[in-house]
Design brief:
The protein is an alpha+beta fold. It has eight helices and 17 strands. It is elongated.
Length: about 425
């Protein structure tokens, strides 16, 4: 594993400040020093942002109030920040008590971890800059998930972030071709059931002879996948059928014919609006975060607190303890751990981050005296985590009870000390 500070991590440095902010928040790091062991309110570092002086790292500062810009570039106009391509608004509006607007839905198949085709319901959206998949469906597919700190902007500049990113192979329902290979952002939910009301299709005679991509388009059902503008052109095929008297029209796709437009509803109607865009620009809601999370730039410590910083030696029972050889056992358990982490990229990433934090805080250092010294003790370690937590909650356990070649462990040679809590019978 390659341990290096986050300040020297090229993938992290290539992100925009808002993306770095999301990354740090997802991994529960300190916004000031990037450590995992504490939050920004308890950060011992006396260094603040060099741009604004507030209690966060300079790498996650954003805003144009005091941020210098290159002299050979003109400042960008508000709402037109570099790297931002705003998507058109995708909106469904219903002002009549008997009319509703259909979204474009279809049944598709997605390959799971073993290559088996799983049928799901997809929403086609030419206004979305990215494709999405629900967290529940991604877990059902059991596909490997990678980190994706991309901010997702919604209507009224509301901001959220993805739970990760997965590679999907999408084909027409229960067919293996044609296939679309996309990277989809994982989010908890795409939308409510679509359509939002039961549709009256008795008067849709112009659709009866068409092989529909979603035969049950008139009934509310869950949406598992959203296919965005990046693949929209690969989905559409020649073929269009116009609706009668302002009714819904249909066009042909690789999945079959899809339906969209106004149609009669069998239930009272409501008003719904949607807007989806993936943005790397500075967002107003992120600026508000600093206003809410900012703490005093100076940490005050009492004289007693300043004196409570000390280092003690291990309390050995013997003056010259004898430990056997421990390197080979620790190496063997480390190799087993590596094989286990190789099968779970998410767990491996969290494990690396935990150890990187240990290294950055000075709790461990690179061993250079190989072959190993017989005087040392090599502690095996392993992970304990909650498999369904988001983000992954993990801690590393160091097994100082592991026996060496002479049958003794490090814990065997140390005093345990007095009990800090009374027995139940003595309370």
């Amino acid at each position: 594993m390659d341990y290096h500070p986050l300040t020297k991590c090229d993938p992290f440095l290539s992100l925009e400040p808002p993306q770095r902010h999301v990354f740090i928040k997802q991994h529960r790091l300190c916004f000031n020093c990037f450590a995992r062991s504490h939050g920004v309110g308890r950060c011992p570092s006396k260094i603040n942002c060099r741009v604004c002086g507030k209690r966060h790292h300079t790498l996650v500062h954003f805003g144009n109030a005091t941020t210098p810009s290159p002299s050979n570039e003109a400042p960008l106009a508000p709402g037109n920040q570099e790297g931002t391509i705003p998507s058109p608004v995708t909106m469904m509006t219903n002002l009549s008590c008997q009319k509703v607007v259909l979204f474009v839905t279809c049944l598709v198949s997605v390959s799971d971890k073993s290559g088996r085709l799983v049928t799901c319901r997809a929403l086609l959206d030419s206004s979305s800059q990215a494709s999405f998949v629900t967290d529940s469906f991604a877990k059902k597919l059991e596909l490997p998930r990678s980190l994706s700190p991309t901010p997702i902007q919604a209507l009224n500049q509301m901001l959220t972030s993805a739970l990760g990113k997965v590679a999907l192979g999408v084909t027409p329902s229960q067919r293996k071709s044609p296939a679309l290979h996309i990277e989809a952002l994982v989010i908890p939910s795409i939308c409510d059931k679509v359509p939002y009301q039961v549709i009256d299709k008795q008067n849709l005679k112009h659709l009866r002879s068409l092989p529909l991509a979603d035969p049950h388009f008139c009934k509310p059902n869950e949406i598992d996948v959203l296919l965005g503008a990046e693949v929209y052109g690969d989905i559409c095929l020649p073929g269009f059928r116009k609706g009668q008297n302002g009714g819904p029209c249909a066009f042909r796709t690789i999945f079959g014919w899809v339906v969209l437009g106004k149609v009669n509803s069998l239930e009272p109607s409501s008003l719904f609006s949607f807007y989806t865009t993936v943005s790397t620009a500075v967002d107003v809601s992120l600026k508000r975060f600093w206003e809410l999370e900012s703490v005093p730039s100076k940490t005050f410590m009492s004289p007693e607190d300043k004196l409570c910083r000390y280092v003690v030696s291990l309390p050995f029972k013997e003056k010259h303890p004898s430990l056997g050889e421990s390197y080979l056992q620790a190496l063997r358990r480390f190799q087993l751990l590596e094989a286990r982490l190789a099968k779970n990229p998410t767990l491996r990433l969290a494990y690396n981050e935990f150890l990187r934090d240990y290294w950055e805080q000075g709790h461990m250092a690179l061993v250079s005296d190989l072959p190993p010294s017989p005087q040392g003790y090599y502690i095996p370690h392993h992970a304990v985590w909650k498999p369904h937590s988001e983000p992954l909650e993990l801690r590393v356990v160091f097994d100082a009870s592991a026996k060496t070649s002479n049958g003794r462990s490090l814990n065997d040679l140390l005093f345990t000390g007095p009990k800090l809590q009374s027995d139940i019978g003595g309370i």
